[in-house]
Amino acid sequence: MIFISGSLTVFGPEIDAWMRPALRARTTLTPRENAAAAQETLHRIAPDATSGWVILPSEKTPLARLIWWQGRLRGTTYLFPDNSAPLNVQPGAGAAFLKALHWRFDAPPRPGRWAVALPTLGLLLALVVGVWIHRRLFADFFTWQRRAAPSR
Predict the structure, then answer these.
(1) Spatial distance between the Cα atoms of 76 and 66, rounded to a whole number of angstroms
(2) First-residue to last-residue Cα distance in the chain
(3) Which of 1, 66, 105, 120 qualifies as a FRET site for 72, CA 20 to 30 Å off?
(4) Burial 14-29 (b: 16+ CB within 10 A, else e)
(5) Is the pLDDT of residue 6 over 80?
(6) pLDDT tens for each residue of 122-131
């Protein structure tokens, strides 16, 4: 389960776009026009924000996105492709759920993290012991010896 959910998080933006079809719209604005419109929208919807980001459209995420902070509160919204108005998109649990599932089984913090941490430590120990046991093989592999026996 850890391997599958971790592998699927690589495709997080695609999974989110699949779960929320409103995010598939493409923009016709140039990057400069998109940035100017997004910045104007950010100043309009969050005038008291202490900091903010404008994430421009890309191949994986075709809509501009605004993220801002007002003190400790975080706000985020996507923008319509052509007029940069805020887009009301329901939050999806796709990629965020898979990421949480990957590193803590989406369980309460302690049992879930321990359920992932113990097998991870076991695999790390097996890796270190395997390298230590086969250290001569690694030394021979990374050392070029011209007159060595063919088996080496």
Answers:
(1) 5
(2) 40
(3) 105
(4) ebbbeebeebeeebeb
(5) yes
(6) 999 999 999 8
> In this structure, what is the dihedral angle of CA atoms 35, 37, 43, 45, given to the nearest 10 degrees?
-120
Of 87, 86, 80, 88, give the one whose Cα is nearest residue 28: 80
Asked whether the beta carbons of 37 and 81 are under 8 A apart, the reply is no
CA distance 73 to 15: 26
Amino acid at 23: L
Which H or E run contains 86?
strand 86-87
Instruction: Give whole-number Cα distances, 132 to 125, 135, 143, in Å.
Output: 10, 5, 17
Strand 73-79 versus strand 51-55 pairing type: unpaired
pTM tops 0.85, yes or no: no
pLDDT tens for residues 39-98?
888 888 888 888 998 888 887 777 888 899 988 888 888 887 776 778 776 666 778 888
